Automatic annotation (TrEMBL), chains A, B:
GO terms for molecular function: DNA binding; DNA-binding transcription factor activity. SMART domains: HTH_GNTR. It comes from Piscibacillus halophilus. Residues 7-75 form the HTH gntR-type domain. Keywords: DNA-binding, Transcription, Transcription regulation. It holds the Pfam family GntR. The keyword Transcription regulation applies. InterPro entries: Tscrpt_reg_HTH_GntR, WH-like_DNA-bd_sf, WH_DNA-bd_sf. Signal peptide: none annotated. The lineage of its organism: Bacteria, Bacillati, Bacillota, Bacilli, Bacillales. This is Regulatory protein, gntR family.
Amino acid sequence: MTNSSKIKVYQEVLEQIRLFIEEHELSEGDRLPSERELADQLGASRSSVREALRAIELLGLIETKHGEGTFLRTYRPYHSVELLATFVLRQPKTKEELLDVRQILEQQCIIRVMDHISSEDIDDLIEQLVTIDEQEVHEFIFKQLFSIVGNELLSKIWYLINNFSQASYRIIKSKSEYVRLLSFIKNKDIPNALSVLEHLYFDHD
Amino acid sequence: MTNSSKIKVYQEVLEQIRLFIEEHELSEGDRLPSERELADQLGASRSSVREALRAIELLGLIETKHGEGTFLRTYRPYHSVELLATFVLRQPKTKEELLDVRQILEQQCIIRVMDHISSEDIDDLIEQLVTIDEQEVHEFIFKQLFSIVGNELLSKIWYLINNFSQASYRIIKSKSEYVRLLSFIKNKDIPNALSVLEHLYFDHD
DNA sequence: AACTTATCAGTGGTCAGACCACCACTTTAA
DNA sequence: TTAAAGTGGTGGTCTGACCACTGATAAGTT
């Protein structure tokens, strides 16, 4: 008898909820039965039902509204990704690894943004730079660029890496460097844009 | 006052557990405090602690042994993958994003591995392919390649993405494709290697 | 002394029930 | 007609109880 052979109640509830959703063809925004109802129907206690629901919630599959009910939501892995990341990144990573991954993400961001960004967007960005503190220029620009690229998952990963990075180092360059970068992006000049980007990661100014 | 502003107890517990693991530098196999202890320390009820623990368990971060305690484990998706599958399949956007990110990571892996891998390594890999089930060839090869590249952070991110991906699709190509890929890597032929890689993502065989 | 068995404390698993906060809706009062 | 108070249902949280399982200790047996 293996120790993992016993199925816990909350896991059974999990499966039943899944089946319920499938059978009733529920989709985004639809409401699930109340916790008490589920407990009753499935012959489990409300506690067990809640354990299952909280787990699904953390996965990002449902959304809970106090006083209203539990609703299906559009699934995005990002909630769990964030939590997983904090565990995965638990051990202090070397500065090089963080920088490496960061570079990959930002390179790809620049490559991909070329297809989506307009000249006006870039001009707007350059204008806004005036109001941004120099320490936050890098983060500001890439936050904008990533959101233009539109891949939320990519953005989220970058954002996490960015935050972890700032614990050990910070990219601070003069705004003129970023204006150059943006200009190359405007001209769809990938090689030069990437070249400028690479310079940003070095310490010397 | 937005409705999402209130943090639930179980979410706070989640965060505290994460911090506890960080502070005490716990790693795989280490035991967490008992549910009652956690409840006491964090000033929460055991129910709330359990909601948090069950959620983490579903994610695959911890393992629970009846009568013994709760233990950290290396991340392995638990029920989460099957559970997510039902939902992710209906979210084309998420699927696209996952594939996109995955492609980025695997491209970079191939580019980077060229500097670290020897001809013998590749020959070994090709030999081992015989024993691998066709369904797992892709995962197997990249697991090896990533470990050769040496950036643990990159590896872990890929591993996470890979697992999430498998909830919605799976890359299955004949082994000969992978032999081609490895051959190009052997010859340090980046363009052709990336070209083969790109083919892998398409459905047609 | 060595070995088996019984006991026990600690742990997770589950449940029932209580109370609160919140929301949508209805009823009531101005 | 409109504003206020009430109402029922919902999630959020806590308490305390009991069970099943585990590992170690104590007691008993050979």
